[in-house]
Amino acid sequence: MISRNQQLFERSQKYIPGGVNSPVRAFKSVGGTPVFFRRGKGAHVWDADDKTYIDYVGSWGPLILGHAHPEVIEAVEAAAQNGLTFGAPTEAELEIAELLCKLVSSIEQVRLVSSGTEATMSAIRLARGYTSRNRIIKFEGCYHGHDDALLVKAGSGALTFGHPSSAGVPEETASSTMVLDYNDLAGVEQAFNQFGDKIAAVIVEPVAGNMNLVAPKPGFLAGIRELCTKHGSVLIFDEVMTGFRVGLECAQGLFGIKPDLTTLGKVIGGGMPMAAFGGRRNIMQCLAPVGAVYQAGTLSGNPVAVAAGLATLKQVQAPRFYENLAASTRQLTEGLAGAAKKHDIDFCAQAVGGMFGLYFRNNLPSSYAEVMGCDREAFNRFFHAMLREGIYFAPSAFEAGFVSAAHGETEISDTLAAAERIFSAWSLE
Ligand code: PMP
């Protein structure tokens, strides 16, 4: 019998390109039918056929408290009762702006937007306006949303489908974007030596989470910071994924480096469409209506989204929140790596705070090229075997995974038991 998931996917493809509203959801790289979700609670989701899964995607990062956290839902309901949107300032958006400035010391002023793409696109425009320069540096395999200037050798879905650079991006736009190798500080130095006075900004994921997970080598981020300062370029940390995911002071707190601008998203919206960009006051003052760099949004600072964000940020400030989250995530990655080792399978894993990477190779990758060398076939087999076991990992070998505060001992040990069964079966083949 054809499953409800399959029926829905067939119908969707008639009306929605590829049947999905964001490419990776289509399961194209892993094959098979995407799972249509009906409900989520805590660490679990239920699909259209009522099968339950332990969820390690968490809507790609926002759900750090798990699905339908009671206090987030309550805050959303209360805000909705007072009206969905005003297109005018509210006290709640001031509150979240104050909170972001308090928690992230490099942020002196912040502006709210509705998606990570808007945040990075606006940060780039602001950096160009502030410096009166055009060129930007990004790193291969980093994904910063689908703005034209940043959709060059990008990661995430772009990488999954083998089109890291999109059709439809004008040559002129792409040519202002210099793409360098992540973790190759010498490459950045060389670019600055050659074009230093033309570089408006360097944008970087301080932990790369869109080409699987690649941690920065010691000195990489500090070196970029130094070069940007020396050449008067704006350093943008894209913390849409890492912000409030790897620690309360984001990745910049973890590594002790202050960018000039930071982009945030995912966790700060608690599952609602909200993101932000902020940083040094003198740069932020270039934004309209104070300055000449235009940026706007009908639903920016939306009161319902802000309520979800505030409720989420309140929870993550609880004592030991990030220590506990990191411990669960480490338990998962160490357990998976242990099971693979026991059965002699080329696999390793690592965690940074509440995010993790799984790699079918025998040591941790530190570059885009090494990530590309992972065994994708093995990943796809593992993904589907785990899915059958009721464990939902990201449907692509190029995405980081996420653990939430709702993932407890039981969920982690059930996940490890499933992996043990799978690796054990593989070792007998
Ligand atoms: N930057 C990073 C680092 C991201 O991971 C993402 C989304 N995964 C974005 C930007 C774009 O955010 P959005 O999908 O909300 O536009």
Automatic annotation (TrEMBL):
Question: InterPro entries given for it?
Answer: 4pyrrol_synth_GluAld_NH2Trfase, Aminotrans_3, Aminotrans_3_PPA_site, PyrdxlP-dep_Trfase, PyrdxlP-dep_Trfase_major, PyrdxlP-dep_Trfase_small
Any one of the GO CC terms? cytoplasm
Name one molecular function that GO assigns to this entry. transaminase activity
Lineage, top-rank taxon, reads Bacteria
Where it sits in the cell: the answer is: Cytoplasm
Q: Does the keyword Thylakoid apply?
A: no
N6-(pyridoxal phosphate)lysine is found on 266
Q: What class of enzyme is it?
A: isomerase
User: What protein am I looking at?
Assistant: Glutamate-1-semialdehyde 2,1-aminomutase
Q: Which organism is it from?
A: Nitrosovibrio tenuis
